Structure formats: C-alpha cells, structure tokens
Amino acid sequence: MTQKRKFAGLPWLALAFPLAACKAEVLAPAGDVAARQRDLLVTSTLLMLLIIVPVMILTVIFALRYRARNRRADYQPDWDHSTKLEFVIWAAPLLIIITLGALTWVGTHLLDPYRPLDRITSGQPVASDTRPLQVQVVAMDWKWLFIYPEQGIASINEMAVPVDRPVEFTLTSTSVMNAFYIPAMAGMIYAMPGMETKLNGVFNRPGEYKGIASHYSGQGFSGMHFKALASDEAGFDAWVARARAGGGTLDRPRYLELEAPSENVPPMSFADVDPQLFQRVVNMCVEPGKICMAEMMALDAQGGTGLAGTMNVQRLTYDKDQRRGTRAPVLGWEPFQIASFCTPEDSARMFGKSPELTRTTVNMTPLRGHALPPPKGLFTPSQDNAVTLLDPARGQAQKF
User: I want to staple 146 with a disulfide (CB 3.0 to 4.6 A). Which of 47, 119, 159, 388 is the partner?
Assistant: First the structure.
C-alpha cells in the first residue's frame, strides 16, 4: 500500500512530457525588436496582475471571514457605502489603465513594423551609414519565397541574415492573405495579394530559428514553415556563395511553376533572379501578356481606357482559381480583362479601311482616339510583352 501511494502521482507527470519539446521563443527572443515586444507583454501582464491577484485573494478572504458559520464576524446589515473603499476600488484600476494605455501607445509606435530600426540592441544605436539588408518575401501555396535583390539570389523555405544588421522585409502574397512570423526576431505582419507590407527586425544572437505562417491559408498550412538562419557576416556571405554555386534561375516561367500549390517543400535556392519578378508578383502580372496593376492605375490616372478598352480584351481567369485548377462560378456575362493596348499606329492599320473611323472629325487624343500608348513606368514594353492587337477578321490576337 505504501509503494502504491509513493508512485500514485507519476501518471500526472506524463502530462508534462509534451511541454518538454516547447521552446519559449516569445519569452526568450534572439532579437532586439522581439525582446522589446516581450518586455511590453510582461510589463502589461504584471500591471494587470496588480488588480487580478488582490481581487482573487480578497475573494477567498471575504468568503472565509463572512461565511454563515463564522459567528465572530462583524455583522452590519444596514451598511451600504464607504467613501474610502469606493476611492480604492475606482482609483487603483484607473491608475493602472492610464499607465497601461501610455505604455501600450508608446510601445506600439516605437515597435511599428514599418518604422526603421533606431538601435541594434540596448545601448547600441544604428549607425548613420548602416544600410538594412533588403529581403523580399512572397507567401505562396504553401511555401515561402525569399528574394535578395542586392545579392541577386532567391531561396525557398530558408532565409539567412547576418546578426546585428537591420533587416527590412517587403512582403506580398500570391493568392490568399497570410501572416509572416519569426517569433525570435520580430512581430507578425500580414502578407496580402496585390499589396506590399513591411517589417523591420534584427537578430542579435546566431542560431537557427523557426519561421511560421501564423494565419490559416488552406490544407498545406501546417507545413508552411521555414528556417531562419542568423550568423556573422562571414557565415552569411558563405550562405550566399552556396546559393550562387547551386545554380538555377528564377525567372517568370519558373516562378509560375513554383506558384502551383505544393506541400512540405524542401529548401532550395536560385543563383539568379529576374530583377522585376517581385514587383510583377505585387502587380499580379507575372503571366505573359497580362497588364500590371501599376499600368492600369497609370491609365486610370489619365482618365481611363476609352475606345482602346473595347478592342483589347480577353477572357479573365482569376489567378487563384487558375493556380488551384478550379473555376469560380460566374453570374451573368463572362468576365473579361484588358490584356494590352494597341498603339495608335496599330489602330490606324486595324481600322484603316473604315471611313467612319478615319474622318477628320474623330478626336485622336490619347483618351478618345482609337488607342492608348502603353504607360511608361516600372514595366516598360519588352520583346516578350509585345503589343497585342485583336484581329476581328480572324478572331484571334496577333503580336506586333
């Protein structure tokens, strides 16, 4: 009987075994931003406990002291008010709320993910000539793409940064909203299709840390994590050299292959990257012949597409549905999109035999003429993005 009582509590210890695999990265960060966020979290918790703990203790004290069986308790049935007690009840929480609000307001502005870092760690400000490492991040289905524009390389499900150097992440997504989170380095930030978000962070301690997608995004969400490697400058340069030595080019066709949904993708790297790739992902125009959002907004700023939009159209297939091999239901007319624009010269060739369109009374300004010149900007027309002319006689598009 004694032996049974001696080991009676051992089954309860089995419940603690799963916790042995947990790593408290949020409370033991490796970067200054995450450390300041931890301090804000701990300070806020302690401030709230100044109210919670006394209330819990007083609840037990009052229940014991004024129970029905305690005949020695002071019984005052006509008592209903105490100015001193009311002052303590309202003044103490009010002071804590004011303090908590001030700390949160200052902390959230200082730790704004868009705000460039002002220090590497406590007592070590960022030097005026320090340039943050630029890392472009794309949340895909279901993997992470990292592009290093300065180094000209890219990687899948693995990123590396040097310690004690600010890192500026620029993030976007392919099809659905996701969330980028490295608990040991900085806070969480959303990545959304057609948009850019930014996150600034720094590692102060070398090591291998875990990055995760902290926003559910489909069936492959559980395997959508990556390695975050922090090392000194020499280690980072060696990682870049290995990526370049591995070969491979990440151009638009290769990106479209990677964009297809896949799960638990092992880390891989690319020695060369299309310099316009990330901006094309943001502007949702990686596919050949598809007009970019920046181009469309430039045309909208000029007043619209006018007659050019009536003859430069093609059926629209939504990116997400096309990538996942499905088709969304369509109510009403089949949707369409502007693919590209004929130049005024091409329009003249197209309608050269139409007297009603070649009269001198027709306004040939860019906004009201037969066509619009392609907008000039980030994505200038190139050989692989030639001007497309819709030939009504043949019922097909031709490139010029």
Answer: 159
